[in-house]
Backbone:
């Protein structure tokens, strides 16, 4: 069972709800997740700092027992004060759990370096994994 860790400030009264999608019954459902972060990266050698932007928007559907399909969009802007330093990525993931302790995963990713595909080279990834959990 994958667990997601989160570090941040604030008071979370509903910490158990983070495991809600994993502890549900076997009905088909759609789970969504989004996150937006503004980051200030400070260089230790001086007083120079860089403002960055990171965002994630994704959804996962569990159509039948043992199958999970996810799609996501990610945005990373390395420096908010410099034009065309962003990266946009589209992710697709299929997880299949045929038996207890076994997981088959197929992951695909397409990343554009720059605001559009013409601003820089694009990166593509297709990966398959077989996991065995104890």
Residues:
């Amino acid at each position: 069972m994958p667990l997601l860790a989160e570090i941040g400030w604030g008071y979370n009264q509903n910490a158990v709800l983070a495991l809600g999608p994993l502890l549900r019954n076997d009905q088909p459902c759609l789970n969504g997740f989004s996150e937006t972060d503004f980051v200030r990266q400070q260089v230790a050698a001086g007083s120079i700092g860089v403002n960055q932007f990171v965002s994630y928007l994704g959804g996962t559907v569990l159509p039948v027992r043992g199958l999970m399909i996810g799609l996501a969009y990610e945005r990373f802007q390395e420096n908010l004060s410099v034009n065309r330093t962003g990266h946009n990525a589209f992710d697709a993931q299929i997880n299949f759990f045929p038996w207890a302790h076994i997981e088959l995963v197929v992951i695909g990713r397409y990343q554009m370096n720059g605001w559009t595909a013409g601003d820089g080279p694009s990166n593509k990834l297709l990966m398959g994994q077989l996991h065995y959990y104890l």
